[in-house]
Design brief:
455 residues, alpha/beta, Beta-Lactamase, Rossmann fold, six-stranded antiparallel β-sheet, 14 helices, 15 strands, globular
Length: 455
């Protein structure tokens, strides 16, 4: 049976005789020709011994795993299953000159999973392409596809596959999307009590816009869904536009954007307002047309939630101005802007305290309520619970700008970013860096993680 037929066949366990084969010394190419003959034991014994490779985190391919045609589907299934078990968000198949590295992205960090010999690269990539309905004979152009996977325990995930040609072969990155992820409650996001009160107050409004802003991977969508889940879908008509649909909320009308057929956020929003909605969630404001429609919807009796890529809450104002939105419309429609980041949380099992080092005194000098010598910081030394990483999950840092008459006047009068921020701080806004330092003092995060978030 050819390698191509085996890859298309699915998962098949290798026989006992096949399990004794040694890895092939050459890279395997997907062709219609017969597979290369395995190296005989005599030839393997005569070959010079290779230098041992010291793994960085996890052992390389186990000794009982050898390259044969039937092992490829099984290896892929094992990688997918382990990634789901470890709650990874992405799987990276990264080729190097002599190896294939497999990484998991867990809680935002790249974690080395396994190291394969280079001979595994092409067959593994070909198997992923077949699962994703991609062309296995195309190696020069990028490809995007999607598939699904179900573990033996019945855990279902959607797979978003991206293939990119590199100098050492094709690199594959797979995004794992749970079909029924657990909704995070609003009170579990990590908001300080005064910030949470502000957010909950604006959720009782009948119209206006609430924006969650920040870089990619900062938890904006999770925050929006946490807010949406506080409403009763039987009492209000709630509709969302998403790309892709991440959380399934009972009773909520959710629509998937499809740019390939010309159905984007602006088209969906234009139709959605004719569906008599009370609450609208737009997954992302990407252009001026979507921004204008969202602002108009917020001004015509709808409560609108959306996300935007900006670094700070105040910076969102300038971003909307750059998109061509009038100042008067911004001040009339926007009620709340939530800027956020996600940072690694200390493992509570192995967390220990230590005095604030002198080199960090300047960071806490603005807070006159406590002398730096009285401040305790925390770090996790690593244990079995956190797999010796020192972190367990992630927590949010938040900066919430609440639109007030004073801030509205500053925006209309073309005030600077600094002037608006100073006024917001006077009115009680906690800056992201302040929230980071506070969570470092309370032991939620390390000071290094706080500094990284403040950069």
């Amino acid at each position: 049976m050819s390698l191509l037929e085996t890859l298309q066949k699915g998962n098949t366990n290798p026989t006992a005789s096949e399990a004794q084969k040694d890895p092939v010394a050459e890279e395997v190419h997907i062709t219609n020709e017969p597979a290369a003959k395995p190296v005989t034991p005599a030839a393997a014994a005569a070959a010079p011994a290779s230098k041992p490779v010291k793994p960085k985190a996890v052992p390389t391919v186990p000794a009982d795993v050898t390259f044969d045609e039937d092992s490829i589907p099984r290896i892929i299934n094992e990688i997918f299953t382990e990634a789901i078990k470890q709650h990874a968000s992405d799987i990276h198949f990264k080729p190097t000159e002599k190896q294939l590295m497999v990484y998991f992205r867990i809680d935002g960090s790249m974690m080395e999973h396994r190291i394969f010999q280079k001979v595994f690269h092409n067959p593994l990539v070909a198997r992923i392409k077949i699962l994703s309905s991609l062309r296995i004979d195309e190696h020069r152009l990028p490809q995007d596809g999607k598939s699904g996977f179900t573990t033996e325990e019945g855990h279902e995930v959607d797979l978003r596959v991206s293939v990119l040609p590199t100098q050492f072969g094709e690199k594959v990155v797979i995004r794992l999307l749970e079909k029924n992820p657990q909704m995070v409650e609003l009170r579990s996001l990590g908001m300080l009590p005064n910030i949470l009160i502000k957010v909950e107050r604006h959720l009782t409004a009948s119209y206006g816009m609430v924006l969650a802003v920040g870089p990619t991977g900062s938890g904006k969508s999770t925050s929006l869904f946490s807010m949406i889940s506080t409403f009763d879908p039987t009492a209000r008509n709630i509709s969302t536009l998403e790309d892709p649909i991440e959380y399934k909320i009972p009773g909520v009308t959710q629509t998937q954007i499809n740019t390939e057929i010309g159905f984007d956020f602006s088209d969906g929003l234009r139709t959605l307002v004719r569906q008599d909605p009370d609450i609208i969630m737009v997954g992302e404001i990407r252009d001026q047309k979507t921004a204008a429609l969202a602002i108009e919807s917020a001004l015509t009796g709808h409560l609108v939630f959306s996300t935007l890529h900006t670094n700070t809450a105040v910076g969102t104002i300038q971003r909307l101005l750059n998109m061509g939105i009038d100042r008067f419309l911004i001040t009339a429609a926007i009620k709340l802007i939530i800027s956020q980041r996600l940072v690694h949380q200390n493992c509570p099992k192995c967390r220990v305290s230590y005095p604030l080092p002198e080199k960090y005194y300047d960071l806490f000098s603005e807070d006159s309520r406590m002398h730096p010598k009285q401040i305790q910081l925390y770090r996790s030394e690593g244990c079995a619970e956190c797999k010796n990483t020192g972190s367990k999950g992630r927590i949010g840092l938040f900066e919430v700008l609440e639109m007030s008459p004073a801030i509205e006047e500053l925006i209309i009068n073309n005030a600077s970013h600094t002037e608006i921020e100073e006024q917001a701080v006077k009115e009680g806004m906690i800056l992201l860096r302040k929230d980071a330092l506070y969570k470092a003092m309370t032991g939620d995060i390390t000071i290094e993680e706080a500094i990284r978030a403040m950069a």
